[in-house]
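RECORD TYPE: inverse folding
INPUT: structure tokens
STRUCTURE:
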């Protein structure tokens, strides 16, 4: 078994019309043994940027604190909030610095970036464990159920989904994919980021 799969867990981010969603399951395991059904993998970076950290649970905690520190230092130095694109490169450089003894995490980022006209455009990205960035215009996935998430998302995702439709799409994608993966599941949490508000909902899933 890969160390990436040891604690299980999956994350997905999707683009909608002037909104973006990021979701993860809530299971924490030790291989096939379930330990918790309320393990948070998605964390707010700013009001408009969220990061999901699937992978080894100890590195989830470590990286969350490291990103929080580096974002706070950026905010103090630049005197402005970090943009999603900048945060994606911060994540990439942090992981690449440790490429010879990497963190066993594949981060997924989602947010709304400001346009020169004053509007917002959705942004999603993911990296591998040494920080190779993957930008997408539809969805990105990571974790033990990533192959299943790709399959379901390809079938359900459509361009320009409104916030409620995007929530329904990402929820159905995640719940149906993790049902086919023994190391993910046990409920889910979904964050939908719009320019006005952030909608967070917790979903019940199969517990078997």
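DESIGNED SEQUENCE:
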């Amino acid at each position: 078994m890969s160390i990436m799969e040891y604690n299980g867990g999956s994350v997905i981010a999707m683009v909608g019309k002037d909104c973006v969603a990021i979701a993860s399951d809530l299971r924490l395991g030790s291989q096939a043994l379930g330990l918790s059904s309320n393990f948070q993998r998605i964390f707010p970076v700013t009001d408009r940027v969220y990061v999901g950290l699937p992978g080894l649970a100890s590195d989830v905690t470590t990286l969350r604190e490291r990103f929080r520190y580096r974002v706070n230092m950026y905010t103090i130095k630049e005197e402005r909030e970090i943009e999603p694109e900048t945060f994606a490169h911060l994540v990439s450089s942090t992981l690449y610095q440790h490429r010879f003894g990497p963190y066993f995490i594949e981060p997924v980022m989602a947010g709304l970036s400001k346009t020169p006209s004053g509007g917002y455009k959705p942004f999603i990205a993911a990296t591998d464990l040494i920080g190779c960035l993957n930008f997408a215009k539809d969805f990105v996935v990571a974790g033990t159920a990533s192959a299943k998430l790709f399959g379901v998302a390809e079938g359900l995702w459509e361009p320009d989904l409104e916030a409620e439709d995007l929530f329904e799409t990402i929820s159905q994608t995640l719940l149906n994919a993790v049902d086919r993966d023994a190391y993910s599941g046990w409920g889910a949490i979904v964050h939908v980021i719009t320019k006005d508000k952030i909608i967070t909902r917790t979903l019940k899933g199969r517990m078997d």
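NOTES: Helices lie at 57-78, 84-97, 146-156, 163-178.
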